[in-house]
């Protein structure tokens, strides 16, 4: 596997949209025999992408098995496995959070949020065996797994990584890499969508979704030794023409725009910067290139070729009644222009729909993926 240690998989965040990533990963199984290990031994994930990446790390010795495990979880998802969705516990949780605002700042408070994702913590403990990660690193099937979270304490992006002994911590402007033994709390921190899910305390810092302060998503795989990075995102195609709203956007539309920005825009900027660096390096002589201490890095990005929000709207009625009531209070309805629903719709039927379309997208670009991964 050592000859493949320059290949990396980067999975971005996106809540329930991350089911799409599993469909693309399934398409890649068509390129490999059943007992083949990971074709990209460096795994990097953020938010829901971090959960998918960690699951693959646990089954790094058999890529097919890891993808099948992920498929089974996503297609059998029920909303209540991710966050409290029944009417009484949902609204009592919201009421307790509001009452906390009347308390003194000196009194210890519980983390406040729109939804209580304690059920997700239980699901992750049940589904993932973190002891497998070290075993896969020792046997060479995995070089590194990284989970990125955002520190509310320092405003830095922190990449918690577990990998072989040759990897070292790093520190750059607004971002750090910290060697860790990954556990459920790292995943809960990375997937704590701002305002939606509660913050998580790790050591002496408070963390939220890894996409918040992630100014350079490509930095982590590059620091871990990647030279070729396969990126599976969850951003839907942008409209060809300007979309004019007929009225002032409500809170739900604004919240959807904020999530779209958090999960996608920094990656676009980082890819643009990478292309400029690669082009500059191609113009230098070998001696000049060595003096820069930079190396060219290749990337291949895959994103949905369909409108995720339209599909989410078709599955709106699958939300539990309590969550539908809350969504209506926030201004989210089946005909809403907000993308908030597509991030929170953890329903197996919606997830299966995304996986099927992700699989088709992967098949459509399979020759391109095969060439990129040199399979």
From TrEMBL:
<feature type="short sequence motif" description="GXSXG">
    <location>
        <begin position="45"/>
        <end position="49"/>
    </location>
</feature>
<feature type="active site" description="Nucleophile">
    <location>
        <position position="47"/>
    </location>
</feature>
<dbReference type="InterPro" id="IPR050301">
    <property type="entry name" value="NTE"/>
</dbReference>
<keyword id="KW-0442">Lipid degradation</keyword>
<dbReference type="InterPro" id="IPR016035">
    <property type="entry name" value="Acyl_Trfase/lysoPLipase"/>
</dbReference>
<feature type="domain" description="PNPLA">
    <location>
        <begin position="9"/>
        <end position="226"/>
    </location>
</feature>
<dbReference type="GO" id="GO:0016787">
    <property type="term" value="F:hydrolase activity"/>
</dbReference>
<dbReference type="Pfam" id="PF01734">
    <property type="entry name" value="Patatin"/>
</dbReference>
<keyword id="KW-0378">Hydrolase</keyword>
<keyword id="KW-0443">Lipid metabolism</keyword>
<protein>
    <submittedName>
        <fullName>Patatin-like phospholipase family protein</fullName>
    </submittedName>
</protein>
<feature type="active site" description="Proton acceptor">
    <location>
        <position position="209"/>
    </location>
</feature>
<dbReference type="InterPro" id="IPR002641">
    <property type="entry name" value="PNPLA_dom"/>
</dbReference>
<dbReference type="GO" id="GO:0016042">
    <property type="term" value="P:lipid catabolic process"/>
</dbReference>
